[in-house]
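Need a sequence for this fold. Nothing fancy.
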């Protein structure tokens, strides 16, 4: 394996990280029933003021110190209910309004079980950065109660001398939500919005449609440059309904609103798709695994439709014989497209390798690493899922590749890998 600049600190799953989420009654019913929301509001409005005040006080005693601006969250939630049920707020006291908001919220531990599979992109705001340093955005897969996966973010800076400084994680997290009728069930595509006062490092994107109900898994973020020079951040992820999977695409230009778009085409029934950061010869391209074990190059004239592509790479070496897949979007170098890969070997041990693709024609594999770049060793083998190292995306920084990676599906570690050394091990 290569010499890498690793860090002793890691990010870990944390059951104390909780968030207040909108509680949508339509998700709890066998079918849509508009009267449920109306009935709940009616019961609160029937309370006398003393009872409503006491009930609100009990809620605040339990939760106010655990969450950011709890009263404001309740009022914001009430205002959504008021608009959707056409309530006359002028006739409802503040205590009852907050209590109604509380009934339409719930607390969720979003990272209690695991934190893993990060990807990283340049931040949209590079103002004030000294030469050689870059502000970054990292996405991570957080697994919480019910084994449901969500997307969380961390901001930070990587310096000229290959050091990482993560921005502090705020004490309170907030969930994105869509603007929708309270008793309706959303279908994709859908747009979700970050809370106006929330930092990105404290924002969680939860499943919001039936196709996503059991998780948003393994976001592979990439900074995409369109043919007209405009920049957008995109990422493929796996939506898991609890029975079926499908690939979807996250799109954002400001990390305040996020479009979550189901992909169409035969390739979209599979997971692990990674988008190239620009078009090549007028086409969008992705790397995917269409048969469960080999890598494929996918081409499309549309970002929203992907059919099966051409086989690009098969497992060859012992550490990857079970299957291979991508570890995020290809990274453009002078020498070609650098694609990090993962391989699965004996005892289901995961390792990370790399291949080099021709820049003008990515269907041509120029070279590949004979041995892993990173593999699970020693204490890194133990965790929620043992013997796994995995990343969903790295980025070029100077003459290094900055790579955050998951360890045993239990923590996230960081490495700077010299590009020259990586290329020297390819044949």
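Here you go.
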């Amino acid at each position: 394996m290569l010499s890498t600049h690793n860090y002793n600190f890691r990010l870990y799953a944390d059951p104390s990280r909780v968030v207040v989420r909108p509680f949508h009654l339509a998700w709890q019913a066998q079918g849509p029933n508009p009267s449920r929301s109306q009935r709940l509001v009616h019961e609160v409005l029937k309370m006398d003021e003393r009872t409503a005040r006491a009930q609100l006080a009990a809620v605040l005693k339990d939760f106010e110190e655990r969450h950011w601006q709890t009263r404001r969250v309740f009022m914001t939630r009430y205002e959504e209910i008021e608009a959707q049920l056409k309530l006359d707020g002028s006739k409802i006291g503040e205590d009852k309004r907050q209590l109604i908001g509380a009934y339409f919220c719930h607390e969720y531990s979003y990272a209690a079980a695991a934190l893993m599979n990060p990807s990283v992109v340049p931040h949209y705001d590079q103002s004030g950065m000294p030469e050689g340093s870059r502000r970054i955005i990292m996405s991570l897969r957080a697994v919480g109660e019910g084994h449901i996966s969500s997307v969380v973010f961390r901001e930070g800076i990587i310096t000229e001398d290959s050091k990482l400084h993560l921005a502090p994680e705020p004490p309170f997290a907030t969930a994105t939500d869509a603007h929708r009728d309270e008793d309706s069930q959303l279908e994709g595509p859908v747009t979700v919005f970050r809370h106006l006062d929330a930092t990105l490092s404290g924002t969680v994107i939860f499943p919001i449609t039936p196709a996503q109900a059991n998780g948003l898994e393994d976001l592979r973020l990439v900074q995409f440059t369109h043919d007209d020079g405009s920049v957008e951040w995109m990422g493929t992820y796996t939506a898991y309904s609890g029975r079926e999977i499908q690939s979807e695409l996250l799109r954002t230009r400001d990390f305040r609103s996020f479009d979550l778009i189901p992909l169409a085409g035969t390739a979209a029934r599979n997971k692990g798709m990674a988008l190239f950061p620009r078009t090549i010869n007028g086409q969008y391209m992705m790397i995917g695994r269409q048969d469960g074990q080999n890598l494929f190059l996918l081409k499309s004239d549309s970002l929203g439709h992907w059919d099966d592509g051409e086989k690009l790479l098969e497992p060859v070496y012992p550490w990857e014989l079970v299957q291979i897949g991508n570890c995020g979007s290809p990274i453009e170098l002078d020498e070609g497209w650098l694609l990090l890969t993962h391989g699965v070997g004996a005892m289901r041990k995961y390792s990370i390798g790399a291949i080099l693709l021709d820049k003008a024609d990515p269907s041509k594999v120029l070279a590949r690493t004979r041995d892993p770049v990173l593999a699970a060793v020693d204490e890194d083998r133990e965790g929620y899922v043992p013997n796994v190292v995995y990343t969903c995306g790295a980025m070029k920084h100077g003459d290094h590749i900055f790579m955050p990676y998951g360890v045993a599906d239990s923590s996230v570690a960081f490495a700077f890998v010299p590009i020259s050394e990586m290329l020297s091990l390819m044949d």
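For context: Residues 7 and 267 are 37 Å apart (CA to CA).
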